[in-house]
Amino acid sequence: MLRLLLTGCSLAAIGAASAQTTPAASVRVPLTVLAIGAHAGDMELTAGAVLIKHRKAGDRVVILHLTLGEGGNPKLTPQAYGAQKRREALAADSVIGAETIFGPYGDGELPDDEGARRYVVNVIRQVKPTHIITHWARGIHKDHSNTGKIVPDAVLLAALPGVGLPTAPHRGVRGIWFAENWEDADGFQPYTFVGVAGEMAEWREAVNEYEFVGGAISSFPYLNYYEALATVRGAVSGKGKAIAFDIDPFGKRRVLDMLP
């Protein structure tokens, strides 16, 4: 959030300034939002509407799919479904306006190890995000929970010059936002709400590029669930439709001299 600091200015001076060209300090600086999902489709479903909103605001949006989620179709081999998920991810991310990166890991085989952390470190250093969206680490799916553990460590490692990688350190991550996923509900507490009423139509168009969203592969009503969730979060936030995120508990501390 940009803040305009006015020091020692008279009302006349402020009025005169407002009549002139907008000063450079008030121009919004574009952000870079990196969404890191365990499987292709995870970030589009949970945070796609927010990503669309940022893209419309002129921000750069990048989605890293650590795995394709190629094991999720009992009617196809992992190789065939992986090729399908890759095509679907590119189509969905095109609707969002996001750049797409595919990770090297297999569905259900994302390791919670230093190799995976260093892979994400390299992506962070190359993309140079200001904001990161990823999974809450307490989930029922191994890949989800491992992603939620890997990413915060990778953000730290990406900032350390002593971590010997070919990429230069990046210290510009302002925060990690944990997306609300039905599989990652354990301990998740909605903390930040982003209104997305104007982005829901594009979000539906994007996620419907995935066959599994429409119910042809899984009986779970993905589209209905996340649309209803946006309605619930919109109701409690007064935004009509909204997406909720949690943050690290340490980030919820506020140090003040008096009550605000």
Q: SSE layout and pairings?
A:
Elements: H1 11-18, E1 32-39, H2 42-56, E2 60-67, H3 78-96, E3 99-102, H4 114-127, E4 131-135, H5 142-158, E5 175-179, E6 192-195, H6 200-207, H7 222-237, E7 242-246
Parallel strand pairs: 1-2, 1-4, 2-3, 4-5
Antiparallel strand pairs: 5-7, 6-7
Structural overview:
The chain is of the alpha/beta class. A 7-stranded mixed beta sheet has the order 3-2-1-4-5-7-6, sandwiched between helices. The chain has a single domain, classed as Rossmann fold (3-Layer(aba) Sandwich), CATH 3.40.50.10320. The chain starts with 10 loop residues before the first helix and ends in a 14-residue tail after the last strand. The chain has helices at 11-18, 42-56, 78-96, 114-127, 142-158, 200-207, 222-237; strands at 32-39, 60-67, 99-102, 131-135, 175-179, 192-195, 242-246.
Q: What would the average pLDDT be, to the nearest integer? A: 90
* CATH homologous superfamily placement: LmbE-like
Secondary structure tally, helices: 7
Order of helices and strands: HEHEHEHEHEEHHE
Largest sheet: 7 strands, mixed
User: For the record, what CATH class applies?
Assistant: Alpha Beta
Number of structurally distinct domains:
1
Rounded to an integer in angstroms, the radius of gyration calculated over CA atoms is: 20 Å
The number of E-state strands comes to: 7
- Shape call: globular
Strand order of the largest sheet: 3-2-1-4-5-7-6
N-to-C span = 18 Å
* Fold-level CATH name: Rossmann fold
Helix content: 25-40%
Could you tell me the strand content as a percent range? 15-25%
CATH level-two architecture: 3-Layer(aba) Sandwich
